[in-house]
Amino acid sequence: MRGTYLVRPGLMALALLIGTVFSSCERIQSIGERLAGKELPPEAPPIPIFAVNTTGAAQGPIQDYLALSGDIIAGSTVDTYPEAAGKITRLYVAVGSRVAKGAPIATVDPSRPGMRYVESVVRAPIGGTVISLPAQVGMTVSQQVSLAKIAGGGGLEVRLYVAERFISRISLRQPCEIALDAWPGEVFRGTVHEIAPTVDPASRTMEVRINVENPESKLKTGMFAKVRLITETKDNVVKIPATALVQRFGESFVFVVEPDNSGSGGFVARRRDIVPGILVDGVLEIREGLEPRDEVIVRGQTLLQEGARVNIIERIPPLDAVSSDT
Hints:
Layout: H1 2-39, E1 49-56, E2 58-74, E3 77-80, E4 86-91, E5 98-99, E6 104-109, E7 120-123, E8 128-132, E9 140-141, E10 148-151, E11 156-163, E12 175-180, E13 188-195, E14 205-212, E15 224-241, E16 246-248, E17 251-259, E18 267-273, E19 275-280, E20 283-288, E21 295-299, E22 309-316, H2 319-325
Parallel strand pairs: 1-22
Antiparallel strand pairs: 1-21, 2-11, 2-15, 3-10, 4-6, 4-9, 5-8, 6-7, 8-10, 11-14, 12-13, 12-15, 13-14, 15-20, 16-17, 17-18, 18-22, 19-20
């Protein structure tokens, strides 16, 4: 019985200690909750920083043009006809041969069964290059059949057809840039020298001919040509990549970057309302709203607002620098 009386006080002391600890924990938790809810200020949300690419607004020329296609033809061609009907017995030239005026082209024998005539020599009516030779030895021809087509010394031309809706943009002596698959990367120059007086009622197109420079005789008749017909040239305009343009609710504007004056040392985006001009090959003319060398955001501006903080990931060379390098 004495042992029993000795154990009970120890158990009671242990129970009292555990109760005290739990009560203290509850008070500490309650104080922490009150401090968190009433006395400590809430944390401020982080300010977003947008990653962007930029480039400088350039100043220089810009050209608007019509993209057309056509064939290279000889500037002047003449067909060669025999003076008498008969059978071709000899050819003196081949396609590509250079001939002088009066040079022999072919011999035609006008003889018939039981009748013998002197052979007739067909001669070149002009000097130039033989570009077509339908005649073959043994062929029977008449005075209406062309034996050869000769291109004179008038140079080469590009013959193309312009849709009716673009006729108002065509004029004589208009400059052109010509590219050919045979000479990739090279640009040949030309000018409009002939405009047809009528429009084809079937195709609704007008024939236009362009004189083309042919250095080193690289161009050949029959080649397919891609033509840029320059319709408008502007000098010293402000221009930017078209990807910089933002259009929202009928308004056109761009974002430029400026130093952040808050002391953070970063950059902020500033909205600039602009008046766009012509758009040519991804290059946009800016009539109002930008100055040369303004740093314009060209990528990452979709979600930007006025004063947003930005981080410049890449600075792309301005358009004038890119064109001068190439």
